[in-house]
Amino acid sequence: MTRDTFTARHLTAGCSVCHGTDAHWTGPNAQALAAQHHDRTKHHTWCEVHLSIRYGTEVRDDRQADIEDAIASVTKGVAL
Question: What pLDDT, on a 0 to 100 scale, did the predictor assign at position 29?
Answer without folding.
Answer: 96
